[in-house]
Amino acid sequence: xxxxxxxxxxxxxxxxxxxxxxxxxxxxxxxxxxxxxxxxxxxxxxxxxxxxxxxxxxxxxxxxxxxxxxxxxxxxxxxxxxxxxxxxxxxxxxxxxxxxxxxxxxxxxxxxxxxxxxxxxxxxxxxxxxxxxxxxxxxxxxxxxxxxxxxxxxxxxxxxxxxxxxxxxxxxxxxxxxxxxxxxxxxxxxxxxxxxxxxxxxxxxxxxxxxxxxxxxxxxxxxxxxxxxxxxxxxxxxxxxxxxxxxxxxxxxxxxxxxxxxxxxxxxxxxxxxxxxxxxxxxxxxxxxxxxxxxxxxxxxxxxxxxxxxxxxxxxxxxxx
Length: 321
What we know:
- By secondary structure, the chain is an alpha/beta fold.
- The protein has helices at 7-41, 51-54; strands at 67-70, 75-80, 87-88, 102-104, 109-112, 126-128, 133-137, 150-152, 157-160, 174-176, 181-184, 198-200, 205-209, 223-225, 230-233, 247-249, 254-257, 271-273, 278-283, 295-297, 302-306.
- The longest helix has 35 residues, at 7-41.
- The protein has two domains: 10-123, Ribonuclease Inhibitor (Leucine-rich repeat, LRR (right-handed beta-alpha superhelix), Alpha-Beta Horseshoe); 161-321, Ribonuclease Inhibitor (Leucine-rich repeat, LRR (right-handed beta-alpha superhelix)), CATH 3.80.10.10.
- InterPro entries: Leu-rich_rpt, LRR_dom_sf, LRR_N_plant-typ, PGIP.
- It is a single-pass type I membrane protein.
- The chain crosses the membrane at residues 9-30.
């Protein structure tokens, strides 16, 4: 008998393989479900609201509020519980959601530290814990999330320095660490992630000078927010050669020197905020070349005059000479 030619055997093998795939899918979804039930258990029952009756085993986990499933075998690929008034802590079980591409707990009242197990979410592209009450040292393991594109931790109470290892996440497009308690200088390697489009480190206690070539490796940079820190020294001229730059916010620091005439190269710039620094000299006439500029604020500096006449009518001005 030739086993390889037996139709029954081939059919049996196919059925076994299908069974294995189906069981694997059930087990994967089952582990995802268990992880979410653990998260629910860590949320104050008084704030569970619609999760209380929806997140139960009586309903398929893929139909739970805030949950999106996908892939083959089916897994949870997105969890979005933004602005649901939830109060609680984030359990380590969340690290079992290994197929997550999006995780957003934004604008709730989660507190405590981020569990190290979040570092197991290697498929994650968007992580948004913005506007919660999270505390503790800035997570040192973030660099392990190599697929991450959007990192949002704004409006929490994270402490410590921004680790240079973040530069290992070469797919990052947006990083928002604003309104935390971060301090110290920031490694220039952070500005070497060429895919970055938005950098927001505003309203921390970060200090030091900005590297002169800060923008040389950021061809896609659109928005840079560094206001409300303790940066000092001169504004890097290279910033005004970022062809895509639309927003530059450096207010409430300790920058000195003059506003570079290279500013005129920023033809895409529509918002420029340099108030409350120690800038001096003239406002360069080249600002008239910034054809997209709509809002500027140079107030509370030591600027003496405007270099030559330039059209002010199209700007929303904040200039205190």
